[in-house]
Amino acid sequence: xxxxxxxxxxxxxxxxxxxxxxxxxxxxxxxxxxxxxxxxxxxxxxxxxxxxxxxxxxxxxxxxxxxxxxxxxxxxxxxxxxxxxxxxxxxxxxxxxxxxxxxxxxxxxxxxxxxxxxxxxxxxxxxxxxxxxxxxxxxxxxxxxxxxxxxxxxxxxxxxxxxxxxxxxxxxxxxxxxxxxxxxxxxxxxxxxxxxxxxxxxxxxxxxxxxxxxxxxxxxxxxxxxxxxxxxxxxxxxxxxxxxxxxxxxxxxxxxxxxxxxxxxxxxxxxxxxxxxxxxxxxxxxxxxxxxxxxxxxxxxxxxxxxxxxxxxxxxxxxxxxxxxxxxxxxxxxxxxxxxxxxxxxxxxxxxxxxxxxxxxxxxxxxxxxxxxxxxxxxxxxxxxxxxxxxxxxxxxxxxxxxxxxxxxxxxxx
Length: 414
Prior knowledge:
The chain is an alpha/beta fold and 414 residues long. 33% of the residues lie in helices and 21% in strands.
């Protein structure tokens, strides 16, 4: 496959690094043929959306990719790294997580695995623990799971508030999160807390008023759990519309536990992502396929709740853009492993290994409306995961095996 060249667009250090002897490089670079499962070539069975280069090399300049191509055509650089015949993929983009919390819900999980059904109400247990925790405790917990995810190849992560549900606790959760990632989401509308159980309208007013004012400076996104037992469609619309007026862009927990208005509302409000998408009508699928809202699938939640799997095949065949993320949280999906979610998606959701990897990288980037991550192409951040395998297919082929042996984030080995 021919090489590609291009200028970088980030800050450069004046020192360049060549990574060579890459057995197989996943670029997600559309200039190498096609870089999206929406491509007509891919839909017609014309190959992979991954922009694969065999016997590949990458040049990094500062924190950005400067060049990719055949290793025999690599330009001269200041430094050289031998990948040892390993596969290299873009760093994973986890566009949905809930990492600012305290405590765990081991007993709830044990009970559920013993036959108790999952519902939205268990969040209250984490709310109580989070409110009682100090800032330092919450930050230690957050950084622990971020480090855990990074070791497994996740170089970009979104995370949410949603376990404080008071003005002070939501604002501090976002303040803590914003110190560690740019992708911060205000989720005051996770559930109606017990102290507002008799007056949910008053809580919606708080979420769209004083709480929003306190939280907006720390967040890029606003989210709502649109589900029975949480917030209905009218409440969700009011919350997301108020967030948009404050400059926050919508995303939404939609159609996880039952059919509902969440997906249609997401498309109506141009939400970047509708997350879960487990129970979809044909109209929901058509809306996602025709709009710009990404369907973010979270198989860790189905695994941990023994729920029905989302039908990724149905979404992909309709032309929807799909992302895969962990939904890492203490109640319904306590995993930080994107490779594990890739394996689940291939085994149980009808995705091919290529589709699943694309969705966990470029798909996650699309769910965050970013083009500088999720691909290995000139101008993108130099975020890379090295696999102790000759091909990315091993992520699904060898489930549970820690294949990520080396991670580079923004041009630095971590």
